[in-house]
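Deliverable D4.2, example record:
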Amino acid sequence: MEYWQHIYQHFNPIAFTIFSFKVHWYALMYITALVVGYFAAVKFGEKFGIDKKIIDEYVVWAEIGIILGARIGFFVFYVPNNHYYLTHPWEMFNPFVNGHLVGIRGMSYHGAVIGFIIATLLYWKIKKVDLWKLMDVVALSVPLGYVFGRIGNFLNQELYGRATDVAWGIYVNGVLRHPSQLYEAFFEGVFSFAIIYLWYKRYYKCKGELIGLYLITYGFFRSLCELWRAPDPQLGFIFDHVTMGQILSSFLIVGGIIIFYFRRRACKN
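Output generated by the structure prediction step:
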C-alpha cells in the first residue's frame, strides 16, 4: 500500500519520446478511449440496425465537435478573466508558449457535450439519420471509452482529489489525496454503463431513453465524485461547497430527465 500511496514518485507521465517529441500516457489513454468508444458504437449500432458507414461518418463529426467544444468550454467555464481568449479564440489552440511546444492542456467535459450536441444536430439535419437510435448507441458507447479518459487524467497527475486520510489515498506534492480520477472512471464510466446496459435493458421501451438515462447517471455520479475531487484551483468553490462541475452537471441531469420523460411519453402515444 505504501508503494501505491507514493505511485506518482515512481511513475513518469511521459510514456516515451520520439526525437524531442514527448508522448504522454494521457494521450495514449485518450486514443484508447476513442478506439474503444468507436468499436463499441459499431457493435451496438448493429443491434440498433445502424450501418457501420453511418457510424464511421458520425464519429468524425462528433469528435470534431467534442474537441472544439471541450477546448472552448475549458476557457469559458474554467479560466477566469478569459476576455483575451474569447476575443482571440485561435489562441485557445496554440500549442506553443514562449516558443516552446507544450501541447494543448485543459479540456472541459461539459464543453465537449455542447460541441457534441451541435455536431450531432448538424449531422442529423444534413444526413437525415434516425437521431434517437443514434443517441442510444452513443449512450452505450461513451461510458466505456470514458473510463480510459479518466485513467489518463490519473496517469497525467491532474484533476486529483481532496486531502484525505484513507488508506488507498495517494500523495500529491506531499499531501495524501483521494484518487478521485479513478472514482470517476468507475462511477461515471463502468457503473453508468452497467446501469444503462445491464440493468435498464429489461425496461427499455422507446428509442432515445438511453441517452436521457446516460445524462442523468453521468450528471449524478459526476456531482457525487466532485465531493472527493479537489475544486479547480483557479476557481475554488463557486458558492458554499458547490463546484463548477456540480453546477454544470445539474444541467445534464435536468436535460436527461426532460429527454427521458418525453421519449417515454412518445412511446405511450
